[in-house]
Amino acid sequence: MRRTRILTVLLALAAGLLAGSPPAASAAEPAPRADVAADSYTWKNARIDGGGFVPGIVFNRTEKDLAYARTDIGGAYRWQEESHTWTPLLDHVGWDDWGHTGVVALASDAVDPDRVYAAVGTYTNDWDPTNGAVLRSADRGASWEKTDLPFKLGGNMPGRGMGERLAVDPHDNDVLYLGAPSGHGLWRSTDAGVTWSEVTAFPNPGNYAQDPNDTSGYASDNQGITWVTFDESTGGGAGTATRTLYVGVADKENAVYRSTDAGATWERLAGQPTGYLAHKGVLDAENGYLYLAYSDTGGPYDGGKGRLYRYATATGTWTDISPAAEADTYYGFSGLTVDRQRPGTVMATAYSSWWPDTQIFRSTDSGATWSQAWSYTSYPDRENRYTMDVSSSPWLTWGANPAPPEQTPKLGWMTEALEIDPFDSDRMMYGTGATVYGTENLTNWDAEGGTFAVEPMVRGLEETAVNDLASPPSGAPLLSALGDVGGFRHTSLTEVPSMMYTSPNFTSTTSLDFAETKPDVVVRAGNLDSGPHIAFSTDNGANWFGGTDPSGVSGGGTVAAGADGSRFVWSPEGAGVQYTTGFGTSWQASTGLPAGAIVESDRVNPATFYGFKSGRFYVSTDGGATFTASAATGLPAGDGVRFKALPGGEGDVWLAGGAADGPYGLWHSTDGGGTFTRLPGVDAADTVGFGKAAPGASYQTLFTSAEIGGVRGIFRSTDAGATWTRVNDDAHQWGWTGAAITGDPRVYGRVYVATNGRGVIYGDTSDTGGGTDPGPGPDPTPTGACEVTYTVTNQWPGGFQADVRLTNTGTSAWNGWSLDWSFPGGQEVTRMWNAEHTQAGTSVTARNVGWNAGVAPGASVGFGFTGSRSGTNAEPEGFAVAGRACPTAT
To answer: Which residue intervals make up region (Disordered) (predicted)?
Structure first.
């Protein structure tokens, strides 16, 4: 993937999120509160494995196999050694704090490995409405506490691959340092991250910005303090702060500072190189060397020149240990790591060597000599020290067939995260713009003629931004439109697709649709540096061919397929709305519909299309040739709207959207958009989609990402919006979910949710349906039969996490419930979500919260908790509801 392609995509993602970011709840047109029931859903990712930039990987220095990864927009993850998978840690981040899914730094506590910290915040400009925060966890990320900061952080800003900006003192682990952007300087906590104050003695807040003339504030922000490194050899013993620490600053003339008195005073390191930014500073305390990776820019896309230096901490001697002459570099250095088991072994990456490939360098003599992952034999032929197997993520080849010296799959790009396992010299992981790669036989590199094996180590880490979703009635159950990697035809939700959409490969697919009565006909629109911005398929998205762009098209926009696949309407960027019969070999300008309008099709009448722009709804009954504004009033005035027509219901249209300063909610039309009725009780809604009707129901199931009854969440209705069920919970929120949602026409209750950085989430219900959603029943407490499912989802030394599902197996609805049990092993609940709890000795009681009190016969309710343990973690005994024994499911 070329440098310009990644840059264009990521900037587009940033702008796209800005345009669709969640507005505050509207004060206009207050609606009555709706009764909201709850259902217990099981949530998973439609597997893609990776798909985005991983700028940081952190290994704990005192506990084997404990590692974390951070992403720029998709949260943080913990490594699971048993399964070689990653577990997401920030799914609890909600709509209002969506920016906290961007992680700019991670720190794992070497003194107490249960402690982990994350510095979160996505943008430092006004794209992100909230300030940054430091999250702290005492159970390895299973639960978190938060301290808000008085400034913003930039997990998706330029310079995000430098670091780590957050560090825990290896001797006094109540002391942490955080490097801030935007001129806010260096910050310190002395109470394990609870409170923070600026280190006023630190002399330099940085001055480097990627583009000082950028008026958006994105590229013009001062990248600030970029990393903090402790010299653990200077500790005064446990509980005494480390005396010497080094700090990197985004300042090409003054990049590295040192304190030798635990942060009281600071000095610029004398004799340091200038003209570069220090992306990383990694200390080999045993040999007394601080290694530094330099680039002439902040990354992660750019970098024309770079150097590697070694600083002798005892003598102050600087040595240029670069593996190439400065004149021969066309890239910056960033990824940097040392082998803690073999002092003197150091590795680095040429992170911005986009063509023909990234480069990885290795030295076993403290940088005196180097070898590299690949080299030319006789140009353009090259010889690799590695083998590469991407069969677990086959799309990483991008379907490419490049000419030498390029290869497919590539070794990587944007390779700013590089770490050797501190307990295993054979294991290394590194992040790229699309995945995490790793090896478990790294030392083969050093053998004459030896090769080490590289493969994806990314399962469970899902980091795509989702722009659109479709679930056809036949063929593949899911089609996705994604940023950066284009999108996939998901024939299986539990297996990685073999390839993204190709012919053409859009950098970002902005919209897709299928013909409702001929679902093998699919259309997608997207962004591409050069080539068509629209493509068609006649085999349900398995194979594609490009259409022809009308004059002026610069981006994908939105596209709609007629119900029978005979015609299409396209609203691209850079040109007015267009329509065509056939597959886009020629286009005609539509009239009556403004440029930039959102377009959709009626799902029954192939000649009917709909549009929306700036508060007006438009209808075409001649295949998109002409549109007429409807008389509907009271709709949202802005363009933060998404709407869809009901499959099988001609003229049945649902519209969601709004803004803080006007109407904001969910509207329904049964006359083809002529009039709309706002649904009462829906405070705000941003997406709408349809799924299979519930058993006995006459109307398809509705899904929406909305605020209903004062609660933000993912909601389902089986009675055309009369009543609603919240189907997610506080542990499963995924930040911003306002791009798209759809049910599955073949599986009742299944919903696909678009996230901005956590990929495609899908949920399946425990509710068997019944025509309407369960509401409060007549009984104040449960009196019928019940069943419990208790599952330990994660455990570690001294702690664990568990999920509990309580099912009403009786014949009467519950309106309030409490579940009692006893722990046989002395376990103690430390935090519970989706239920309130009390504990006395070994006895625990979990009670409903307000929104999940109602449980219909046959339905379930779920909650989860983290706990401490001192020994074995045996399953609880004596489950009971209202004194009635509750057997566990087998």
So the answer is: 763-783
